[in-house]
Design goal:
This protein has about 220 residues and is an alpha+beta fold. The protein has a single domain, classed as 2-Layer Sandwich (Alpha-Beta Plaits). It contains four helices and nine strands. Strands 1, 2, 3, 4, 5, 6, 7, 8 and 9 form a nine-stranded mixed beta sheet that branches. Strand 8 and strand 9 form a beta hairpin. The two termini are about 25 Å apart. The relative contact order is 0.28.
């Protein structure tokens, strides 16, 4: 189906953000700008249905890019799937993780005092039913975004960095992003789940006068 909604604008902001670069194996180092997949995750936290699929058009950077370096404690291990399966079959087993034994301290290079405006629309999918329509989901999203409703609290890359959001009406004046223009290099666009295994997709990101234009992005796997 190729039915799509009108474009929406959503202002999102918070104290910190970490859109982790996948090439960093140990330390958490953020991209300089929010990734398209992170923007999609915020919109899906407000409204997600099998009948719709969000598409990001543009991300406006509203404040200068600022950095903050921290150290934080993380758990360095997970319960293995095999251990969990064995415990399920036997009806008993140790599935706990002792934090004192598994704790690791890692450095993080985060963004601070962030604010973006997400431009996006949704399109209807093949899972849309006879009772589903673009207008129905448009009204649903507007109502939920205006009232601050979400299925779970959206976050900027990590759950400890919550997102505050504000719906921008269609008749509101254009936003004024920062005047920064910069080459951002290869950035994660999204994860492709159409094959047998999930495949990351990357694109060459370029910030032009504070806007990351995604309308004609060519991705590579």
């Amino acid at each position: 189906m190729n039915e799509r909604s009108r474009p929406f604008r959503l202002r999102v902001y918070g104290d910190n953000a970490c859109f982790t670069r996948p090439e960093m194996k140990v330390e958490r180092v953020s991209y300089e700008v929010m990734t398209p997949s992170a923007a999609r995750g915020i919109l899906e936290a407000i409204l997600w249905k099998p009948a719709i699929r969000w598409r990001i058009l543009q991300i406006d950077v509203m404040k200068p890019i600022r950095w903050e370096s921290i150290r934080r404690n993380e758990v360095g291990s997970i319960i293995s799937a095999q251990t969990a399966q064995t415990a399920m079959k036997r009806g008993r087993g140790s599935l706990g993780i002792y934090i004192e034994d598994a704790r690791q301290q890692r450095a993080g290079l985060l963004l601070r005092d962030v604010e973006y405006v997400i431009h996006a629309y949704f399109e209807m999918t093949e899972k849309a039913g006879a009772e589903d329509s673009v207008t129905k989901f448009e009204q649903m999203f507007i109502r939920r975004a205006q009232n601050g409703q979400c299925y779970h609290r959206p976050y900027f890359g990590c759950r400890e960095f919550p997102v505050h959001f504000e719906f921008i009406p269609q008749n509101a004046p254009p936003v004024q992003p920062t005047d920064l223009s910069k080459e951002l290099g290869w950035m994660l666009y999204d994860i492709d789940y159409s094959g047998e295994e999930p495949m990351p997709q990357f694109f060459h990101a370029r910030l032009k006068r504070g806007s990351l234009d995604l309308r004609e992005v060519e991705v590579r796997s």
